[in-house]
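Subject: Sanity check before I submit

Could someone independently write out the structure tokens for this chain? I want to compare against mine line by line before I put it in a report. The sequence has 274 residues.
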Amino acid sequence: MNTLHQFKSFTSALPQSDIMPALFMGHGSPMNGIEHNEFSTKWFEIAQNIPTPNAVLVVSAHWFTHGTKITAMDFPPTIHDFGGFPQALFDVQYPAPGNPILAKETADLVKTTNIVLDHDWGLDHGAWSVIKHMYPDANIPVLQLSIDYTKGAQYHYDLAKELSALRKKGVLILGSGNMVHNLRMMSWEMINGGGYDWAIEAKEKFKNAILNKNHDTLINYQSMGSEVMLGIPTPEHYLPLLYTLGLQSDNEEATLFNDKAVGGSLTMTSVQVG
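---
Independent answer below. Compare away.
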């Protein structure tokens, strides 16, 4: 069976399901991947309350590349892209399959840029630390889409719109990052909860814009004030939010969960669309 025939068979075999929700998860510390806490418990609950996806496509803050890539291997490896944590975290393996045919379908959907089929990356902790709580049996294919660091926020928001057809094919698209993410200003005294005044103010600005569907404000986040700029010293943890919002249709509302600041300068606020 040639690749094209496999591709056609895959797309025709997918059920015409109700449109899948889209999610943005504030993933926080890698330790959330092995801890059962209020955040990981909510991730599990979300998975129980949405349709079981045919596949999950993750846009993770931790795959920041020149150009856009998508994992296209049969079995993406588990990447431990961090340091200084307990051995138990490095021992985690999340052996979910990939889906090369879905990777090609996704690449073909996008007309504004060339998406490269990648065989070298895998699932970084922005993906597996969340997904392993949602789907602990690792029996649902998981792919990652990288974030092109050469492009601005509008590009990423628009790219998400080109992926919207996947939601009708039972693909759960999940952005993974943190809206407020300034590790240099993190406070260990506040690690279990609490945020600096500027972090709370930035969080409230984000929430208001999300709930009011004011996407232009969120795309032009550099104009949202000094509190927001303190919360986004670099954009990689913020941009996954724009993928989730770019998938929101006019008749869909957004709901928020895990709306908490930790470590002074990091927020776990998460979003469900649909």
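---
OP: Matches mine. For the report I'm noting this point. Strands lie at 22-26, 55-65, 68-71, 115-118, 142-148, 171-177, 254-257, 261-262, 266-267, 270-273.
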